Amino acid sequence: MSVKPVIEKNVPLAGLTTWKVGGPAKYFTIASTYSALKSAVDFAAKKNLPIFVLGKGSNILVSDRGFPGLVIHLGAEFQKIKFTHNGVVSGAGVRLYTLAREAARRGLSGLEWSVGIPGTLGGAVKTNAGAQSKNISITFKKLTIMDFGGKLEVLNKKQIVFDYRKCILPIQGIILEAELALFEDNSEKIQKRMSEYFDERKIKQPLGYATAGSVFKNPEGYVAGKLIEECGLKGLKVNKAQVSTKHANFIINTGGARADDILKLMNKIKLEVYEKTGVLLEPEVELVGDFD
Ligand SMILES: Cc1cc2nc3c(=O)[nH]c(=O)nc-3n(C[C@H](O)[C@H](O)[C@H](O)COP(=O)(O)OP(=O)(O)OC[C@H]3O[C@@H](n4cnc5c(N)ncnc54)[C@H](O)[C@@H]3O)c2cc1C
After folding, report:
1. How far is the CA of 165 from the centre of ligand 1 (A)?
2. 3-class DSSP assignment, residue 127
């Protein structure tokens, strides 16, 4: 039986991102079953709309004008987790941290580094999320994807190019689930590592503020935050967007910032760092929608 997806119009996206900025999605749906997802994809194809897959919105800057197509967020069917003795098959809509915590409880190691990353598994695969010199590609085995024509495919690691905060898939589509290899370890030891990593984050990062994590990638041989700090840019503001005084590679929405403010601040940082050091910063966050 095919389930008709509920597709809403003009849905504000700001509240669905960690930066809390951005305009509405022209169309928005939470796809809770395969068949609803397929119908949503068909809907976009029929109307010739671009599709954006939204995880937790923790690595994106949505334009103040919003997204002129269909935004798809994965619901219940894609939030299931199945552990095995040496791995996990998880829906792409599951929060990475939930996965790491559940794995730790079962004495399965391999995801401790992800503590404090607020995204979903799908977002983590797409951005090759990482920390503590590790990333999702290390544990990754395979994924199931629905292409924008509604066809399901399984892709193994050999078919995917993982790079620094980048994942090149041979097919554009919606990642539905992924299988990760984990290994057995003492549950308490795993949990101890996780809390140590989280303590490190609390010291270094402005947690509790509206941010999107690191704004720029670390250029080869440099640390972006250090470059920005050395250029004296901590605390720099454009309206309500501010370079964190705690971690220079984080931009905080101090309340009521617009995407344009954040983008202007990013451009200022880029320019200053380039003029002072000759190093060109590349955004780690993805711009979604149309910007000037
Ligand atoms: C406080 C904070 C700390 C952070 N720390 C880190 C860190 O240490 N390391 C790190 O790597 N990142 C970090 N991030 C950034 C972010 O959390 C990660 O990039 C995360 O993996 C993004 O997941 P998401 O679900 O939020 O994706 P989104 O931001 O919603 O989307 C990111 C990209 O993934 C795509 N995508 C999402 N889901 C799917 C899917 N199911 N199928 C296909 N494409 C999909 C989107 O279309 C988009 O292109 C941090 C962010 C914050 C706010």
Report:
1. 10
2. helix
| Residues 86, 199 within the same domain | yes
Q: What is the CATH number of the domain that holds 34?
A: 3.30.43.10
Give the count of domains, the chain: 3
Print the domain residue range for 238: 206-288
User: pTM of the prediction?
Assistant: 0.97
Give the pLDDT confidence score for residue 5 in this predicted structure: 75
Q: Are 41 and 149 in contact (CB under 8 A)?
A: yes
Residue with the smallest CA separation from ligand 1 atom 51 is 213
Q: Is the CB of 58 under 6 A from ligand 1?
A: yes
Task: Please indicate, yes or no, whether residues 194 and 85 belong to a single structural domain of this protein.
Answer: yes
For residue 286 and ligand 1, the question of a CB distance below 6 A is answered with: yes
DSSP code at position 267: H
pLDDT of 194: 98
For 210, residues 6+ apart whose C-beta sits below 8 A from its C-beta are 18, 19, 20, 252, 253, 257
Looking at the domain assignment, is residue 142 inside a domain? yes
Query: Does residue 3 lie in a domain region?
Result: no
Kindly give the distance from the C-alpha atom of residue 59 to the centroid of ligand 1, in angstroms, as a whole number: 4
Alpha-helical (H) ranges within the chain are 34-47, 96-105, 121-127, 136-139, 187-204, 224-230, 259-277
Q: Is 87 found in the same domain as 135?
A: yes
Rounded mean pLDDT for each run of 10 residues along the chain, 292 residues in total: 79 98 98 96 97 98 98 98 96 97 97 97 98 97 97 98 97 97 98 98 96 98 98 98 98 98 98 98 98 88
Q: Which residues are catalytic?
A: 165, 214, 284
Residue 238: strand pairing partners = 241
Q: Is residue 145 part of a domain?
A: yes
